[in-house]
């Protein structure tokens, strides 16, 4: 066999270019993560549609609704695809793809309610997505060991629970759009605490009761999120969730796990874009059933 007949990944031989395996894996990871975002968006839209028509959006009532359960299965599928994507490609490629769920969710939810998303909604969602992608890309990589002491775990749950309770209480005294945003932010704080605890369970040292405590913030987050969806402002509630969840996880990671925080003017600009887009979404018309 002559030299030109032999192909080595990542090398270029006369007359032939062989694709780099790592580059192909990254493209596959991005595609899988994007598919996961679509499942996330579909599940969120289904659950919001059912929560909006269920009065006070009690979880025990929603569990009897097939479309709400289908939404939950879709979200689980999205989570599975996201985990698969993280195994195929770098975090800096996979995480920004998750933000696309916001851009997918608005048209899907609008279609379920029998209308088209407005240009203002799509533009505001795009601004939120750009800000979130910037924040995700600006978080410095952490390669050290992940360890959370029992005191740290107790602090995590107490701070997250207290912040979520304050946000929930404040939501009772504001406008419907503000209520949706605060309730979804409360849910995002609890989900961020769940993600932090899960990261410790997967990557580092932990205590046996962490696994028992894990479902508590996740279940509370799910219940509060349905209340946010029931308000009707799906755009602002979903955007608030998308912002609060990762930011809470990053904050807990820095405070309790010693992970680095993003800094500098680009981080401020990205945060301002995400916040500004969410405010713009709060001013849009709430989604309502057409029948």
Explain what the structure shows:
This protein is mainly alpha-helical and 291 residues long. It has one domain (3-282). 74% of the residues lie in helices and 1% in strands. The protein is built from twelve helices and two strands, in the order ββαααααααααααα. The chain has helices at residues 21-52, 59-62, 66-88, 91-98, 100-112, 119-138, 150-170, 176-203, 208-213, 215-231, 234-257, 265-282; strands at 12-13, 16-17. Strands 1-2 form a two-stranded antiparallel ribbon. A hairpin with a 2-residue loop joins strand 1 (12-13) and strand 2. Helix 1 (21-52) runs parallel beside helix 5 (100-112). The longest helix is centred in the N-terminal third of the chain and has 32 residues, at 21-52. It is globular. The N and C termini lie far apart (71 Å). Residues 1-19 have low confidence and may be disordered.
Q: In brief, what are we looking at here?
A:
With 291 residues, the chain is mainly α.
Task: List strands and helices in order, with pairings.
Blueprint: E1 12-13, E2 16-17, H1 21-52, H2 59-62, H3 66-88, H4 91-98, H5 100-112, H6 119-138, H7 150-170, H8 176-203, H9 208-213, H10 215-231, H11 234-257, H12 265-282
